Amino acid sequence: MSATVLDDAQPARSDFEWAVETHGLTKRFGDNVAVNGVDLRVPRGCAFGYLGPNGAGKTTLIRVLLGLTHADAGTMSMLGHEVPRHRDLALARVGAIVDEPRFHGHLTGRQNLEILAAAREPAARGRIAASLERVGMSQRADDRVAKYSMGMRQRLGVAACLLGDPQLLILDEPMNGLDPAGMHEMRDMIKSLVDEGRTVMLSSHLLDEVERTCDAVAIVDRGNVIRQGSIAELLAGSDVEVHVVCSSSQRAQTILTSALSGARIDVEGEELTIHLPAGTDRDVIAEINRQLVHDGIDVYHLQQIQVSLESWFLSVTSRLGESE
Ligand SMILES: Nc1ncnc2c1ncn2[C@@H]1O[C@H](COP(=O)(O)OP(=O)(O)OP(=O)(O)O)[C@@H](O)[C@H]1O
Ligand SMILES: [Mg+2]
What we know:
Structural class: alpha/beta
CATH topology of the largest domain: Rossmann fold
Distance between the termini: 51 Å
Strand content: 25-35%
Strand order of the largest sheet: 6-7-8-3-9-10
Mean pLDDT: 89
Largest sheet: 6 strands, mixed
Shape: elongated
Low-confidence stretches: 1-9
CATH class of the largest domain: Alpha Beta
Number of domains: 2
Bound molecules: adenosine-5'-triphosphate, magnesium ion
Radius of gyration: 24 Å
């Protein structure tokens, strides 16, 4: 009865903007603030990376979202449903893997899914075959899980999530324990789930993986979200790096230091690395060349470098004196 009342009060929603939204979300363990006033906005229909070093509070945030532990402060919603108030409605369309997926090793993959489906709505049972197919496990579905590799267990975990036909998948460190081929498969699988219109939120400490897999990211350190947005946006906000190889690098450094305000210039042998602030106009790069040639320095090589999210992430954390 109470489910009916809830349904009437708040039916499945399609008008929400964010798949996950939190305001001031806080979780403490004694004096340790694992999640510190987090305002998170996960756009719908994308792969979103919750990226941070070990101990940053990634798993804790996910556990709070799923109701596995309570928040000390703040508000949150998933798929437009406020939680914990409407947790049942939200979780009906959320599939999650926190930590390593746990299965009965002495049963087959298919039998494990049958047990899980029995605990869900009647339609879940009818999705078993398609879910196994979807994660490429149909051939091995009747082998015992004890014989599965880590990658196969992860895939079975995703198949278990798909039993509920989720709009949102929350995966805690889905690349953990996978070899390069397994990571590649997981990445492709996440992309195809997003192509079907689902939202995938994953946590990771692997910056490179997030950059390759996700469309948008939040960078978290010591419980605080430092930045969030699309990867393209974050890169646009990153510093510009220009590499120059020239005939007199020391003299070039002196000349450019006085010519360019706000630039940091490192010299190594013949090569200069010029760090320019975010948003620097490309005319400045032409000016570097002009200035050097004007002062009689031969320029052999000049290149603007696309800063990877990884180096950007490291520069942000080290700027805060929090490099791990
Ligand atoms: N149940 C708990 N009791 C006490 N402290 C905890 C508990 N769970 C997590 N913590 C602490 O909260 C902080 C965040 O931990 P959390 O596991 O969320 O980090 P994480 O980002 O998932 O790290 P990892 O990359 O290692 O998985 C850490 O300082 C951790 O020691
Ligand atoms: Mg964790």
